[in-house]
Amino acid sequence: MQTRKSHKILVVDDEQDVLEMLKYNFEKEGYEVRTATNGLEAIQIAKTYVPELILMDIMMPKMDGVEASQRLREMPEIANTYIIFLTARVEEYSEVAAFSVGADDYITKPIKPRALLSRVEAFFRREQKRNKQDTRIEAGDLVIDKNSYSVFKGENPINLPKKEFELLYYLATNPDKVLTREDLLQHIWGDIYVLSRTVDVHIRKVREKIGEGYIQTIKGVGYKFKLD
Which pTM value belongs to this model? Predict the structure, then answer.
């Protein structure tokens, strides 16, 4: 049955009971759901299914969730897809690894279906709000178009995962203003708890793609975007 919530979700986990439980709960709310049991299968399905959100376990056979997410983020069609990690791993390095490959959220098991549904709905509400805006920013030979979530440097397109794009866009809409890590965490990740070093990881990746001259580090404070 199709409803106003018919967003496409891909659930990836090697535990069949977790797959069935999540598929049941999301389909009950009107979402379209596909499932995969490992990272390789997830990549194959994502190529043609192109989900709007992926719920990804970390520890899986054949290919773990971190490597799968890294490969998915290299696919242009998945650049704007939300990726939420669902995992029993609670070590700090696992969380850092997840966000470093473009995760949007990190939720530890055991899973509470209603809480997870609320979290997913919040992601889609934010997406709806962003899609109402149509803004284009030009800085030197860099063009940032929020309406299409695209970035060009001269004639060359630059592929940025969703969080990297949003970080660049937020910096660019506040030119010459020093933004603290805490401010960036609040505006890009919202109420999701992530480590402050996550900002540094994403900034480093953005710089590698657009060049060093646009984002300036203010030591001990945060970052600033230079329009010229």
Answer: 0.63
